[in-house]
Amino acid sequence: MALPALVLVVDDEPMVREVVAEYLRRDGLRVDELGDGAAALEWLRDHRPDLVVLDIMLPGADGLSVLRRIRSAGDIPVILLTARTDELDRVLGLELGADDYVVKPFSPRELAARVRTVLRRASLPVVVDHALEFDRMRIDPRTREVHLDGRLITLTPKEFDLLFALAQSPRQVFSRRELLDRVWDSAPEYQDPATVTVHVGRLRQKLEVDPEEPRWITTARGVGYRFEP
Is residue 1 part of a domain? Predict the structure, then answer.
């Protein structure tokens, strides 16, 4: 079972860390918090987060120094937190490889949305422009057709998008929030997660011999859905 994404929040203001961490945890993410750059550098020697929210103005080691270290070690996504007067630092941060930045004071909801967007971009599979074939099923993104046992299965656009998103990463479990972001491309607060449940149910009705005992789209209880090749 895949763990939720881990986000490291580095900011010397305890209140900022608390609020940001609370919003990210509401989204189901794991969060670690640190208050200075030196501690962040030490933490990063032993951990690999899925994303770092990084203030530029930090004691111990400034955020740009931490960003340089992160980039020298790999491609972990980084969102910078900057003051309104830090335009040169923002530009330098982007040149150093930051994925996004948020200007203080900021809306925690906006930051959480940026985190979701960057995580989604980082985890998107390589674009597939050829048909996917599994056992008795063929999914063709060019014609947007699905054939099962040689029969054309009529799907709505969103049903096709959901099936294709799952099938591109066989056996990988996706939460309903992740599928909302990937398929509906909108923030979870503006979409009901039940939308995913309904569409999965419709797909099962069309694809499965017995929708109550699905062969193709299975449920990881308490986590989400996966496509079984």
Answer: no
Q: If the chain, 229 residues long, is cut into consecutive pieces of 10 residues, what is the mean pLDDT of each piece?
A: 85 94 93 96 93 94 92 84 76 77 87 86 66 94 92 87 93 90 60 79 94 96 94
Please answer whether residues 126 and 168 qualify as being in contact, where contact means their C-beta atoms are separated by less than 8 angstroms: no
User: What SS3 string covers 175-194?
Assistant: CHHHHHHHHHCCCHHHCCCH
Q: Are residues 116 and 16 in the same domain?
A: yes
Cα 4-41-119 angle, rounded to 5 deg: 30
Residue written as token pair 């995913």 = 196
Contact indicator for 196, 179 with CB cutoff of 8 Å? yes
Quick one: how far is CA 182 from the chain centroid?
8
Task: Tell me whether strands 224-227 and 30-34 are parallel, antiparallel or unpaired.
Answer: unpaired
pTM of the model as a whole: 0.58
Q: Which domain holds residue 158?
A: 132-227
